[in-house]
Amino acid sequence: MDNFTFYSPTYFVFGKDEENKVGHYVKRFGGSKVLVHFGGGSAERSGLLNKVRQSLNAEGIEFVELGGVQPNPRDGLVYQGIELCRKSGVDFILAVGGGSVIDSAKAIAAGAVYDGDFWDYYEGKVVTKALPLGTVLTISAAGSEGSGDSVITKEQGMYKRATTGEALRPKFSILDPALTQTLPAYQTACGITDIMAHLYERYLTNTKEVEVTDRLIEALLLTMIKEGPRAVADSNDYQARANIMWAGMMAHNNSCGVGRTQDWTSHNIEHELSALYDCAHGAGLAVVMPAVFTYNMHHDVMRFAQVAVRVWGCQMDFEHPEETAKAGIKALQAFLTSIGMPKNFAQLGAKEEDIDELAHKCCWGDVNTGTTGGFVPLNEDDVKAIYKLML
Amino acid sequence: MDNFTFYSPTYFVFGKDEENKVGHYVKRFGGSKVLVHFGGGSAERSGLLNKVRQSLNAEGIEFVELGGVQPNPRDGLVYQGIELCRKSGVDFILAVGGGSVIDSAKAIAAGAVYDGDFWDYYEGKVVTKALPLGTVLTISAAGSEGSGDSVITKEQGMYKRATTGEALRPKFSILDPALTQTLPAYQTACGITDIMAHLYERYLTNTKEVEVTDRLIEALLLTMIKEGPRAVADSNDYQARANIMWAGMMAHNNSCGVGRTQDWTSHNIEHELSALYDCAHGAGLAVVMPAVFTYNMHHDVMRFAQVAVRVWGCQMDFEHPEETAKAGIKALQAFLTSIGMPKNFAQLGAKEEDIDELAHKCCWGDVNTGTTGGFVPLNEDDVKAIYKLML
Predict the structure, then answer these.
(1) Number of alpha carbons in the 13 Å side-chain half-sphere of residue A277
(2) For A84-119, how does the pLDDT look when each residue is reduced to its tens digit (9 = 90+)?
(3) How far is the C-alpha of A267 from the C-alpha of A362, rounded, in Å?
(4) Do the chains contact at A250 and B255, CB–CB below 8 Å?
(5) Distance, in angstroms, between A192 CA and closest chain B CA?
(6) Nearest CA in chain B to A210
(7) Do B209 and A250 touch (CB under 8 A)?
(8) Residues B252-287: pLDDT tens digits?
(9) pLDDT, tens digit, 9 for 90 and up, residues A321-337
């Protein structure tokens, strides 16, 4: 295990109806003039935004609002949010929504107190200062409610890039599983896939002797395998959604990823797909992961065999461990298909003729240097071959 | 799953030689006049205290020292520490040691800024204010480095009692697995047993639909089963100790215990043993757990069968689940014996003729009300019967 630091100072408030206390928590964490940031009409239609407004009003907290965050959130709205914060003297950002809303809120929080262009942070500059922010989560997926990470798409060139920093960790996050019950089955399944991808990205490591984090990752994958299909089959299954919601946070606050190298190949390769085709991130990952794992499997067959046996219940083939490794990848793909995820380029709306462009952007992009991935450094030809496996 | 809040704002610094940065972290978290609190001579002999002094001096931080914390830490030294803090204007407590030292430091931290008797907190008053504290951990066991809990023994009457409060969470904790390499095998095994007990106390719940926390607890138990015997067999096995150290923190910071009722019967029954005989807490737990589980098994056979199958690798007996449940308890006891833990009263130095007194104190004590335990409320006769199972 490698040396590391771990810091997760977010106050988590978990359970039914807890969103009604949001004003109390904004006040507790020092907010007096709030930007309420949200997505499309669903938070309005469901009545959630009204609950938030009532709770803020009840605490005498002033606020301004900025809606319109899209999936794969764009830099354009971030610039608007930064201007609004400065004009209105905002001292606290409240994100009401899923990962896209929270990521957009984080970008605004950092940009509002930075003299330069906020995009600098998405080109490698470390975020050390940001307005405090809180979240009311409406979808279990990104894990952004417990992380210091944010991903934004630059409209010019459609580059999707990430940043990270302790200052971006939410001060509080309200997680009410009931708020996710209005999600369509497809979006629920996309969230489940994203959570599982966060786990695989950490599992695929070159660090030895990491039993504790291996076991924790496996525990969360096993949880998704039990609870995922229940949530997809019955959107009102509160208990399945509760288990998924805590697993989604734990999958990405990094307590199960410390002290080890991580991969993030699948995310990097997927980001180009959702940037170009605006497909759901989780759906993209469902197509990308089996291809990446098949391509990288021979780098460490025993690691893939381990997850196959411990998570997917495959029998270990001691004479041919690579058969066990393959069986685990097949089991993952079958699971994702069973919850309604796509399995190839066509189902995703992606096109074979774009592969050269996708691979080039992934490896070179605007900030990269010719390779991608932490488990096996892949060059442009490797990435092309992986995209071809998805056809 | 039940509603809950979870807040773990401790900054963890993990890995070899990180203790040399302790001065930096004390300063970062606002300390300018420090009480360095420690146990017996081992921190001095190993050179650890000198490293701490050098690091504090290098940062220009003043400090006073108070050593002498015993296992099962006593109120007498806490009162001394409180007086020393007030006399010297201490604004930060640094615990250098294991759970006993950290628990004693927490009591001092709370007592130093409280007008009444600090023992009030151990009789039910909630701690809302305390001096900030940091830790340099030297044994993986209590999990106090990541929790808001503290256990102190009152010398008059030898009552061992616990308190908890967010204000008692350490600001930072330095976890260097190499510092635990000087521990004798017996103490290493006691720590392993304590960690496993923290996991079982959370596993034994009456809350339904808690797959995510069940799986996380199982993951940490599986880690102990793999890494525990390695650490006991070779005290210099850094990697085994690193895995145990992170597991020990995760086992008790409560991320795997949220949203569910917990038990704590074994701890309550053990506390009377270590208070009366001054035996090691972990050794006491090794004797207590199999007895408690055997006594309580029929309350929820399937829960005991689940841990038997998932953690201990027992075959599920679908016709006779109670046989599987029993096999899991036997496997736990065999494991604890294999790492050198005692299995009965005699090996612990406990006496049959004290059983009435032990059971009475456990159920009535100075603050209890006739029963103990969250999984099955046990009265004095139940507890007597459990002690008799340990003969």
Answers:
(1) 22
(2) 999 999 999 999 999 999 999 999 999 999 999 999
(3) 10
(4) yes
(5) 14
(6) B243
(7) no
(8) 999 999 999 999 999 999 999 998 998 999 999 999
(9) 999 999 999 999 999 99
Structure tokens at A204: 């695929």
Given a cut of 70, whether residue B368 has pLDDT beyond it is no
B 232-291 near A (Cβ less than 8 A): 239-240, 242-244, 246-247, 250, 255, 258-259
Which chain B residue has the Cα nearest residue A15? Answer: B3
pLDDT score of A368: 65
Length of chain A: 391
Question: Out of A278-282, B104-108, B298-302, which region has the weakest mean confidence (pLDDT)?
Answer: A278-282
Q: Do B6 and A15 touch (CB under 8 A)?
A: no
Does the beta carbon of A308 lie under 8 angstroms from any beta carbon of chain B? no
A14 closest CB neighbour out of B9, B223, B258: B258
CB contact under 8 A, B9 and A13: no
pLDDT for res B366: 60
- Whose tokens are 């803020």? That residue is A56
* pTM for the predicted model, two decimal places: 0.97
The CA R_g of chain A, rounded to the nearest whole Å, is 20
Work out the minimum CA distance from A332 to partner chain B, whole angstroms: 19
B116 contacts chain A (CB < 8 A): no
Distance (Å) of CA B102 to CA A219, B138, B284? 30, 10, 20
Q: What is chain B's Cα-based Rg? A: 20
Helix (H, G, I), strand (E, B) or coil at A102: helix
Rounded to two decimals, the ipTM of the complex is: 0.96
Q: What is the pLDDT of residue B183?
A: 94
- Average pLDDT of the residues in A151-162: 88
Q: Please tell me which residue of chain A has the smallest CA distance to B15.
A: A3
Confidence grade of residue B324 (pLDDT, cut at 50, 70, 90): very high
| Token output for B17 | 């030689």
Shortest distance between the Cα of A292 and any Cα of chain B, in A, equals: 26
- Looking at the DSSP bridge assignments, the partners of residue B149 are B164
Query: CA B339, CA A4: separation in Å to the nearest integer?
Result: 29
Residue B125 falls in which region: left (phi positive, over 0), alpha (psi -120 to 50) or beta: beta
Q: What pLDDT is recorded for position B367?
A: 62
HEC profile of chain B: CCCEEEEEEEEEEECCCHHHHHHHHHHHCCCCEEEEEECCCHHHHCCHHHHHHHHHHHCCCEEEEECCCCCCCEHHHHHHHHHHHHHHCCCEEEEEECHHHHHHHHHHHHHCCCCCCHHHHHHCCCCCCCCCEEEEECCCCCCHHHCCEEEEEECCCCEEEEEECHHHCCCEEEECHHHHHHCCHHHHHHHHHHHHHHHHHHHCCCCCCCHHHHHHHHHHHHHHHHHHHHHHHCCCCHHHHHHHHHHHHHHHCCCCCCCCCCCCHHHHHHHHHHHHHCCCHHHHHHHHHHHHHHHHHHHCHHHHHHHHHHCCCCCCCCCCHHHHHHHHHHHHHHHHHHCCCCCCHHHHCCCHHHHHHHHHHHHCCCCCCCCECCCCCECHHHHHHHHHHCC
User: Closest residue of B to A172, CA-based?
Assistant: B7
Whose tokens are 């507890």? That residue is B383
Put simply, the answer to whether B1 touches A239 (Cβ < 8 Å) is yes
